Amino acid sequence: MQKNTSPCYYGEYLQLDKFLDSQHPVSGQYQAHEAHDEMLFIIVHQAYELWFKQILHELNSVLSAFHQPNLDANNYGKIIQRLNRINEIQKLLNQQIGILETMTPLDFLDFRDYLVPASGFQSIQFKEIEILLGLKMEYRINFDKKSFYNRLNDQDREHLMNLEGQPSLFDRLQEWLERMPFLDQANFSFVEAYKTAVSEMLQHDLEIIEGVEYLSEKDREFQKKDLEKTKQTFEAVFDNETFDHLTKDGQFRMSQKALMGAIFINLYRDEPAFQQPYLLLEKLIDIDEEFTQWRYRHTVMVHRMLGTKIGTGGSSGHDYLRQTTQNNRFFKDLFNLSTFLIPRSSLPALPESLKKAMGLRSE
How many domains does the chain contain in total? Predict the structure, then answer.
């Protein structure tokens, strides 16, 4: 049944008159003929910005759901759905790079110098996405720390600096993980039970190394040293001083308590209360991975187009993008969780009272 009181016309609803009249190549202003591929360049980047807008729409919704004293378990499905939508959009953005790569370096050079000093540095929406996900100034590479804001106008600079002061998704995630209610119960301490299980697993590994006859003494000592490194890594999650030292060294960003909550979710992912929280963590890993893929593909494309030339925004071009691919990550701690997993057969048994509670609620 029609609910609108006046007819809705396709072109008017989408405002196509404005939308399709928003591509204005600049090359024709400076040379006899407009560079053919400049139209492609504009449309691809406009499409990026449209999808960035949708990502921000979904991301703000997720942040709103997390901004509660206790995350309502009924919201898990909605949060996972919207994180998944962000992830699917990211895949599309990665595919768009292939379209841009149909432009040759010579085609790009036909109009590239007319764009100075405009660059991707000035994509406010992309910077918003990075900040809201958790990539704030203190975690950026040195070049960004020095020049992140000086290429922006006053209004955009003030907007992003205000955003820096607000809790990010990383911050909200950490708070949520720190509230894990099952880590320490009257009749069960997960940390102690997990520590015992880890010790038994490492001792078992040592016995295997010592018992294998075909290993040379040199190989045996090498594997023992490797096992000792693994042991030290595990000890970091149990020892406050070691963990703080590694955090200052950049190996951890998440708090010790939050990391333990994430480990607990991963180890007991099959319990009803943790199936959706586990999927939520996985979706955040997927999003981080797709952004890393996007940065990498962008890096390769820029190298292909410009070689070692500097970028239009004054960066070192390909070299700068390569550094951001390696360093501008949001959820490294979640990627590193596999380091702290143990075999299912070694999982500490949970008390029946706790299993019953986990089957009913997660907060």
Answer: 1
